[in-house]
Amino acid sequence: MNVLRLKQKRILIDLMRKFFINQGFFELETPLLVPSPGMEVHLHGFKTTYLDQHGKSQQCYLPTSPEFALKKALGAGFEKVFEIARVFRNQGELGPRHHPEFNMLEWYRPGNYEDIMDDVAVLLLYLSRHFVDINTPAGFSWDQGVLRSSVQECFARYTGLDLVKGLEDLTYWLASARQVLNELIPDNESFDDIFFRVWIAFIEPKLGIDQPEIVYDYPASMAALSNIKGSDPRWAERFELYIQGVEIGNAFSELTDSQEQIRRYKSANQEREILGYPPHPLDEDLISAVGKMKPTGGVAIGVERLLMVLTGESDIRKFFLQPFYGSEGATNRT
What is the topology classification, in CATH, of domain 3-146+211-332? Predict the structure, then answer.
């Protein structure tokens, strides 16, 4: 148990809460028993069962994010909302940067992902000036603001690959990635699979090294719950926040088309079944809420990951009172 890290987490969460209340956001408390854990292909929820007094069962999940519940509130008329929520992710979410339960700061506001970019910049500057235990590497600056780079620019800058050409020509994309990675990539790999091979190996470790960095406009195939860019449908209005090569947050111009939401839900479930994963239940209340939402931007930030880069800590488990160690055994738990 690391007393210092636990105290630092409480200080940071208190600062976050103060910031958003002062900005006119309303704090919500979303449920921990939900009908569906999410829709992302590679996220896995914890499943449990509720039994009523007659023994009738109902399947429930722990949330992988408060997103669905917060969007139901938005559909009901709320506008500027936030939550610092406990979330849960199963199946391999364990390591120096991963823990099966963690805290997520999530907020939504009228506007789009560019408005959320502005929010992120203001929040990080506020936290950097009020969180007293900052310990970041020499040469890193919080005061320079947040650098903004498109995904397309990142591929060109760090690999020389032409992302636009890759979108249009899978043969080029595969051959170029093989050359950059200097490894054999199976012929049947998808554009997205190849994208992330290159991204993880050559781009992600170089992001946000000198200052926080927002990477925006992902390929439309990675839209998840975001809008497609109206001016150029090749891209999704989505960004991720990186600090010191660590992904800290994920943000969207939120999808407000309920029929498109259903289509993406079904597509994600089809892919899950191909990979041998059970499908996620369709959350009908979410679908209804999405169609009632005004144009909205939203973001989710991992609290403990942000603490890692603020304090220089290399092990996320130091920020938990009783961290989960899985099969490593009880000898490592103190």
Answer: BirA Bifunctional Protein; domain 2 (3.30.930)
